[in-house]
Amino acid sequence: MPESLSLAYCLSCIASFETGYLDLDPGKLQEVFAVSHENSIYVASPLLADPSEPLPLYPVRRIIGNIGKPGLAVLVAPQVPKMRALGYDAWNFITHRPFDGQLEDNFAATSLHLSMTGYQLPLNTGTHGSRDHEAVFVESVISVYDRGDWVADLDVLKAYKSWDKSNQDKNGSCMHPEVEQQDASIFPSLVCIDTWVELLDRPSGYSLVRARGNQSARLAAATIATQKDYQFQIVRPDCCWRCKFESHRKDRESVPPEVPRSKDDPAMPGRFPFPFEQVGNSNVVGSDLSDESDHSSSSLDSDETIPSVNMSPSPTADQLPAFAPPPGYHSQEKSVTYMFIY
């Protein structure tokens, strides 16, 4: 069974077993993250697991409860999750302190909440004649709150599908001493991210989200990093930072250096869109005379000779004068912006 369809097939089977007659098309359940019926809520396993841990064999977990909707409620996330905007209307204290060597949890006040947006769409069950809707799509939002203040809406299932091997930590063994394994300060200029505002306004360079042992905060941080297109990695609690540093350095060294641009590149600084050409005793750009008013007022009877415009093709790159790019332009050594979620 394909991995991308396993959750949809399981939810389709659960709907059939719960109702006894509904036969839902798994192709229509690709974006569904939960199903509610009577006193049971069947939730996708990635929503209830740590993002660094491998998923259990079964992609669905059951929770006792109901969302308050009759019949079979099929929960889907909004297509565009909202996120708190950092503006000048609120005071945001951002420190981005250097890493002090403490691997702790600074997101203890974080909580996840499920709410409904009010949008519903009846699901085609293949039968007609019933007065009530037997299955309904219900748009539901998983939101992260910090001390009661809304931070962002999460699409965990979509984010989980986009995580690849580079985002998830490898639980391998190493021969480094325990002191080196737990020393995250090996990364240069490592900066701490201890609040959600600091995560939304991430620093440049290497940063570390300190949410040790906090499954909800780690899941929310990984989802927000995915929705904001950050480069990040979810770190296991028992990881070796020395191995991670060496692996990250090898990945950077494997990237070929950027080839400097040639001087005939139009985007290169100092490259004029039209080369200078000599016309009479004055320099003009292309075929554009520097002073049009003088030539428009001259008459044909005048003894003054009007210089002709050189319409010859532009010189090649080898004929252009040599120049040097400004310092720092297209430097091969680029600043690294990378985040670790611990």
Q: How many strand elements? A: 13
Q: Which blocks of ≥5 consecutive residues have pLDDT under 50?
A: 255-263, 265-302, 320-334
| Whole-angstrom Rg | 31 Å
The coarse silhouette is elongated
Assembly context of the chains: single chain
| H/E element sequence | HEEEEEEEHHEHEHEHEEHE
- Give the integer mean of the pLDDT values: 75
The helix content, as a percent range, equals 10-25%
Main beta-sheet strand count, sense and barrel state: 7 strands, mixed
Determine the strand fraction and express it as a percent band: 15-25%
Q: Helix/strand/pairing class, anyone?
A: alpha/beta
Intertermini distance: 33 Å
Characterize the structure shown:
This protein starts with a helix and ends with a strand. By secondary structure, it is of the alpha/beta class. The longest helix is centred in the first third of the chain and has 17 residues, at 3-19. It is elongated and about 65 Å long. The strands form 3 sheets. Strands 1, 2, 3, 4, 5, 6 and 7 form a 7-stranded mixed beta sheet that branches. A 4-stranded parallel beta sheet has the order 8-9-13-10. Strands 11-12 form a two-stranded antiparallel ribbon. It has helices spanning 3-19, 156-162, 178-181, 196-200, 215-227, 241-254, 292-297; strands spanning 32-37, 40-44, 60-64, 72-76, 110-122, 135-146, 149-154, 191-193, 206-209, 232-234, 276-279, 282-285, 338-341.
